[in-house]
């Protein structure tokens, strides 16, 4: 985690983004979090330490991190966006009951991009793939 945070801070510095205590707290929270939190969840987790911080402040800082290539915004369905600081190539499994998002690794599906480009003539810039189901915690609750 410490190395990831150092690399992220270096990247921000190189793009001219000033590091404030709030930005540092938001970024380190995201790097530690495995839950793909919403802006509201990040705000609630940090509100005690930063009484003057608002949800809008969190959201604006997340936008800065997205533009710097440190965070990705996950928009699934109509729910609030969730944020992921893991920029490695990975995919998501999403629970249809509680909205939990779990990461999983799989060899990148680059052949899909090649096929899409070949069949459509598009210049393909990327893809997103997610699987949907019921997480184990929800499955246990449903079976009882």
From TrEMBL:
A Pfam family reported for this protein in Swiss-Prot or TrEMBL: FUR
Gene Ontology molecular functions: DNA-binding transcription factor activity; transcription cis-regulatory region binding; zinc ion binding
Binding, Zn(2+): 95, 98, 135, 138
Cellular-component GO terms for this entry: cytoplasm
Keywords, comma-separated and alphabetical: Cytoplasm, DNA-binding, Iron, Manganese, Metal-binding, Repressor, Transcription, Transcription regulation, Zinc
InterPro entries, sorted: FUR (IPR002481), Fur_C (IPR043135), WH-like_DNA-bd_sf (IPR036388), WH_DNA-bd_sf (IPR036390)
Cofactors: Zn(2+); Mn(2+); Fe(2+)
Similarity comment text for this entry: Belongs to the Fur family.
Protein name, per record: Transcriptional repressor
Lineage: Bacteria, Bacillati, Bacillota, Bacilli, Bacillales
């Amino acid at each position: 985690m410490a190395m990831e945070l150092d690399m992220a801070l270096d990247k921000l510095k190189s793009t001219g983004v000033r590091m404030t205590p709030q930005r540092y707290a938001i970024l380190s929270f995201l790097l530690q979090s495995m839950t793909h939190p919403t802006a509201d969840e990040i705000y609630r987790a940090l509100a005690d330490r930063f009484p003057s911080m608002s949800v809008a402040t969190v959201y604006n800082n997340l936008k800065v991190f997205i533009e710097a290539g440190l965070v990705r915004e996950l928009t699934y369905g109509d729910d609030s966006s969730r944020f992921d600081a893991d920029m490695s190539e990975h995919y998501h499994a999403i629970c249809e009951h509680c909205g939990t998002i779990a990461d999983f690794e799989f060899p990148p599906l680059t052949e899909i991009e090649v096929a899409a480009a070949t069949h459509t003539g598009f210049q393909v810039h990327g893809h997103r793939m997610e699987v949907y189901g019921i997480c184990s915690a929800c499955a246990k609750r449903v079976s009882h």
